[in-house]
Amino acid sequence: MPPRLIAHLDMDAFYASVELLRYPDLAGEPVVIGGGRRHAPEPLPGGGFRYARLRDYAGRGVVTTASYAARAFGVHSAMGMMKAAQLAPQAVLLPTDFERYREFSRRFKAAAAAIAPRIEDRGIDEIYLDLSGLPGTAGDGGRAVAQALKAAVFEATGLRCSIGVAPNKLLAKICSDLDKPDGLTLLAADEIPTRIWPLPARKINGIGPKASERLAGFGIHRIGELAAADPAWLVETFGRSYGAWLHEAAHGRDERPVVTHSEPVSISRETTFERDLHAVRDRATLSALFTELCVKLAGDLQRKGYVARNVAIKLRFDDFRIVSRAVTLPAHTADAAEIRRAAGQCLKRVDLSRRLRLLGVRAAALLPAAEAARRAAALPPRGETLPLFDARAPAGGAESAEEAPLFEASAD
DNA sequence: TCTGGGGTCCTAGGACCC
DNA sequence: TCTGGGGTCCTAGGACCC
């Protein structure tokens, strides 16, 4: 098998950059995106806008994105806004506008797809591209195609991105981060020891805060140190699956394909309250919020064309403990009342003596609504006996049904 | 001034079946 | 009375990612 050529394309400070297109006078300023709608810029009579400042923020939000100027103050994604306000009180605060980001996301992905159609979606601001065998990649390891991608993305959106090109997704992802913003990094397999091994282990996608902390406890800080660790010891220490993967990842080995299509596994809605709520004292408020979440979730399912057979709730208590309860339904649904009923059943199984910080509802075991309708239509009318080999049987069901008597006879 | 909202995947254990 | 082993489905929790 010839080596693959995989690119990872990552938009630079995506939300903040989209906002800077709309408010160009903020270019170069520390800007933080996050929080609710209340701090939208006010148009001034003479033109321009009056912006909210981070120091004026009060609430429980976190930073969604910080402009590079704001990052210089130590502000970063997922940081509590109140903490960010201490670091950069003068930073401009803008509300998130997901509709707009989704539109720019569609645009940059379409522009990239016109050049390299084998694309894997990795959320709103990232994609993997399989450049293997693409015209123009033969001579230069993909540099010209990557430059064309950057130009096309800028043409379509006015935004800059960073690209890593490598033999697999793992390495491409690491590389896209090496030269941000507006970066382009190519890596060949034989450069792993010199360019990848000196990096912190945390740079590997899949080594998070917990794993890197544990590794550090064993004196393993860099990818090269992880690569030098005994694989048997890694398996003993981190489990068969994760331990073996750590070893492979540290050596830059990754055979995962670029997946161009995937179905969602679950769809959910959750909300963090402005203040912690108590099941008894705030019963009416909680009940209304709970119903609202179910209605929104049902709307999401219907809009996206799915039905669900599993409904789960998620609670976060005031001490940040998270609890979840799930129930599997007799039949798929996208109906708000049915989801509300199932979620209510789940809620009854939780001790609600502590105050709640967050409430969420999730739909899982999804089926495309069209497929559910097809199956329903294939069923005989009510009251009629089912044929032995029914359309509802799972794939291969008829075969296993024929073999079933044999298994029964040999069982026990 | 602690710590959002939307996801995926993995593990472990129990129920139930053969 | 104790002893099996495999398989599937399901739940709960946790790590991780954007």
Automatic annotation (TrEMBL):
<dbReference type="InterPro" id="IPR043502">
    <property type="entry name" value="DNA/RNA_pol_sf"/>
</dbReference>
<dbReference type="InterPro" id="IPR043128">
    <property type="entry name" value="Rev_trsase/Diguanyl_cyclase"/>
</dbReference>
<keyword id="KW-0548">Nucleotidyltransferase</keyword>
<keyword id="KW-0963">Cytoplasm</keyword>
<keyword id="KW-0234">DNA repair</keyword>
<keyword id="KW-0239">DNA-directed DNA polymerase</keyword>
<keyword id="KW-0238">DNA-binding</keyword>
<keyword id="KW-0460">Magnesium</keyword>
<keyword id="KW-0235">DNA replication</keyword>
<comment type="similarity">
    <text>Belongs to the DNA polymerase type-Y family.</text>
</comment>
<dbReference type="InterPro" id="IPR050116">
    <property type="entry name" value="DNA_polymerase-Y"/>
</dbReference>
<feature type="domain" description="UmuC">
    <location>
        <begin position="6"/>
        <end position="208"/>
    </location>
</feature>
<feature type="binding site">
    <location>
        <position position="10"/>
    </location>
    <ligand>
        <name>Mg(2+)</name>
    </ligand>
</feature>
<dbReference type="GO" id="GO:0006281">
    <property type="term" value="P:DNA repair"/>
</dbReference>
<dbReference type="InterPro" id="IPR022880">
    <property type="entry name" value="DNApol_IV"/>
</dbReference>
<comment type="function">
    <text>Poorly processive, error-prone DNA polymerase involved in untargeted mutagenesis. Copies undamaged DNA at stalled replication forks, which arise in vivo from mismatched or misaligned primer ends. These misaligned primers can be extended by PolIV. Exhibits no 3'-5' exonuclease (proofreading) activity. May be involved in translesional synthesis, in conjunction with the beta clamp from PolIII.</text>
</comment>
<dbReference type="InterPro" id="IPR001126">
    <property type="entry name" value="UmuC"/>
</dbReference>
<dbReference type="GO" id="GO:0006261">
    <property type="term" value="P:DNA-templated DNA replication"/>
</dbReference>
<dbReference type="Pfam" id="PF11799">
    <property type="entry name" value="IMS_C"/>
</dbReference>
<dbReference type="GO" id="GO:0003684">
    <property type="term" value="F:damaged DNA binding"/>
</dbReference>
<dbReference type="InterPro" id="IPR017961">
    <property type="entry name" value="DNA_pol_Y-fam_little_finger"/>
</dbReference>
<dbReference type="GO" id="GO:0005829">
    <property type="term" value="C:cytosol"/>
</dbReference>
<dbReference type="GO" id="GO:0003887">
    <property type="term" value="F:DNA-directed DNA polymerase activity"/>
</dbReference>
<dbReference type="GO" id="GO:0009432">
    <property type="term" value="P:SOS response"/>
</dbReference>
<dbReference type="GO" id="GO:0042276">
    <property type="term" value="P:error-prone translesion synthesis"/>
</dbReference>
<feature type="active site">
    <location>
        <position position="126"/>
    </location>
</feature>
<feature type="site" description="Substrate discrimination">
    <location>
        <position position="15"/>
    </location>
</feature>
<dbReference type="Pfam" id="PF11798">
    <property type="entry name" value="IMS_HHH"/>
</dbReference>
<dbReference type="GO" id="GO:0000287">
    <property type="term" value="F:magnesium ion binding"/>
</dbReference>
<dbReference type="Pfam" id="PF00817">
    <property type="entry name" value="IMS"/>
</dbReference>
<feature type="binding site">
    <location>
        <position position="125"/>
    </location>
    <ligand>
        <name>Mg(2+)</name>
    </ligand>
</feature>
<comment type="subunit">
    <text>Monomer.</text>
</comment>
<keyword id="KW-0227">DNA damage</keyword>
<keyword id="KW-0479">Metal-binding</keyword>
<keyword id="KW-0515">Mutator protein</keyword>
<keyword id="KW-0808">Transferase</keyword>
<dbReference type="InterPro" id="IPR024728">
    <property type="entry name" value="PolY_HhH_motif"/>
</dbReference>
<protein>
    <recommendedName>
        <fullName>DNA polymerase IV</fullName>
        <ecNumber>2.7.7.7</ecNumber>
    </recommendedName>
</protein>
<dbReference type="InterPro" id="IPR036775">
    <property type="entry name" value="DNA_pol_Y-fam_lit_finger_sf"/>
</dbReference>
